[in-house]
């Protein structure tokens, strides 16, 4: 069986840039600003839920709760594109400026 092509390095870089932009904006979630890696978890989990994927929370090794989430490294190009669209829409809905994302060339300035 041939599987769909895996997400590209460019998609990965773009997503991490979005996560960094959200973190640098100072936007708070659950009462405090979050780091880029925390935004990654939040966006992947939200995208999974929004696309009717399975979201599972299990007790962790120390009694904490852990979200067993989808792996971005194993996403197809199509799935990664969907995640990027979700992240961009979330940023637009929450008025998050995408300055690093733009600076790294992912968006062209309007002429």
Question: Count of helices?
Answer: 4
Topology-level CATH name: NinB fold
| Helix-strand topology string | HEEHEEHH
CATH class: Mainly Alpha
The count of β-strands is 4
Which consecutive residue ranges, at least 5 long each, have pLDDT under 50?
A: none
CATH superfamily: NinB
Instruction: Give the integer mean of the pLDDT values.
Output: 91
Total domains: 1
Q: Order of strands across the biggest sheet?
A: 1-2
* Largest sheet: number of strands, sense, barrel closure: 2 strands, antiparallel
CATH architecture heading: Orthogonal Bundle
Distance between the termini: 46 Å
Radius of gyration: 15 Å
What share of residues is helical?
40-55%
Global morphology: globular
> What is the assembly state of the chains in this entry?
single chain
Beta-strand share of residues: 5-15%
């Amino acid at each position: 069986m041939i599987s769909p092509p895996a997400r590209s390095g460019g998609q990965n870089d773009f997503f991490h840039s979005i996560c960094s932009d959200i973190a640098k904006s100072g936007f708070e979630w659950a009462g405090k600003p979050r780091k880029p890696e925390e935004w990654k978890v939040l966006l992947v989990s939200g995208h999974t839920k929004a696309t009717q994927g399975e979201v599972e929370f299990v007790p962790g090794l120390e009694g904490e709760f852990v979200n067993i989430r989808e792996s971005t490294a194993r996403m197809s190009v199509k799935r990664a594109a969907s995640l990027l669209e979700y992240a961009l829409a979330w940023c637009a809905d929450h008025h998050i400026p995408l300055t690093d994302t733009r600076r790294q060339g992912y968006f062209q300035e309007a002429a």
